[in-house]
Write a structure and sequence with these properties.
By secondary structure, the chain is of the alpha+beta class. It has one domain. Helices cover about 30% and strands about 20% of the residues. The chain is built from 5 helices and 12 strands. It has helices at about 10-60, 95, 100-105, 160-165, 250-260, and strands spanning about 65-70, 75, 120, 125, 130-135, 140-145, 175, 185-190, 200-205, 215-220, 225-230, 245. Strands 8-5-7-10-11 form a 5-stranded mixed β-sheet, with helices on one face. Strand 1 (about 65-70) and strand 2 form a beta hairpin. The model has no long low-confidence stretch (mean pLDDT about 90).
């Protein structure tokens, strides 16, 4: 008696059905994987934000410093800052460990978004150590040779936790995912329309858009929010690193971040 089996036609039909099912399932699996990475990114930011707050509690109300200086053609965070060095160039994690926040966290992994695929310049096999920066307007000190150095003498540059608490900490963002093309030192440089309301709008640092055209922000009160961006951002730096506002959606995204900067009480 002959054992029943698949005919060639039945086998081809089965393979076709399986291929169609795989095609239908793969986008869902990809989205689920992306959501998991976005959640891990948010957890990283929650830990960083807690470390930032804990540092201030343990250091007489002073916020973690964010001191950067231009060295030749690059901006580098200096000793005593929340991180040191320049993540585009750092080949090891020593500059993460040397930052004042590391003692509060004792983790290298929380400094990098799992969706960040960027690598060290000149070393394509080395992943960068950091995906996040801190707002220019929170205890920054710059020596860049640009207009951003005005931050050193501006009262809107908050240096104390008590100043942040008086400025509505649920509104003030601290950490931000920065785009891999602009991240370098630990400072996210952004103009304030409170400090210079007549200044033209442009990007210097640019937010990342790794999570379905959105990026995560950590706020001073401890909450983390995934901000959906309205614009699909194309970066073309010019004139000292400034990137022009290209359309109404781009401007709206900038204004979202500007609303989260310190204002006068």
């Amino acid at each position: 008696m002959r054992t029943a089996g698949f005919t060639l036609l039945e086998l081809l039909v089965t393979i076709t059905v399986l291929a169609l099912l795989a095609a239908l399932c793969l986008p869902s699996l990809s989205r689920a994987s992306g959501e998991a990475r976005a959640t891990r990114c948010q957890n990283n930011l929650k830990q960083l934000q807690f470390g930032w707050w804990l540092y201030a509690e343990e250091n007489e109300n002073c916020l973690p410093p964010n001191r950067a200086r231009r060295q030749q053609f690059e901006m580098v965070n200096l000793k005593g800052s929340w991180v040191m060095g320049n993540t585009k160039l750092d080949q090891r994690d020593a500059n993460i460990r040397a930052g004042v926040l590391y003692a509060e966290l004792n983790s290298i992994e929380v400094y990098r978004c799992p969706s960040d695929k960027s690598t060290v310049e000149g070393h394509p096999s080395l992943a960068r150590t950091r995906s996040y920066s801190i707002s220019l307007w929170l205890n920054a000190e710059l020596d860049s040779g640009t207009a951003a150095d005005q931050i050193n003498d501006v009262d809107l540059n908050l240096c104390k936790l008590s100043q942040v608490e008086a400025n509505d900490p649920s509104r003030i963002w601290v950490f931000i995912e920065e785009h891999e093309q602009t991240i370098d030192d630990g400072v996210f440089v952004i103009g304030s329309n409170t400090y210079a309301p007549e200044a033209p709008a442009f990007w210097v640092s640019v937010p990342a858009d790794r999570h379905r055209n959105g990026g995560n922000l950590a706020f001073a009160d401890g909450h983390v929010f995934r901000q959906p961006w309205r614009a699909s951002r194309f970066i073309s730096s010019y004139n000292g690193g400034k990137t022009p506002i290209t359309n109404a959606n781009d401007r709206a995204d900038l204004e979202v971040l500007q609303r989260g900067l310190p204002t006068h009480p």
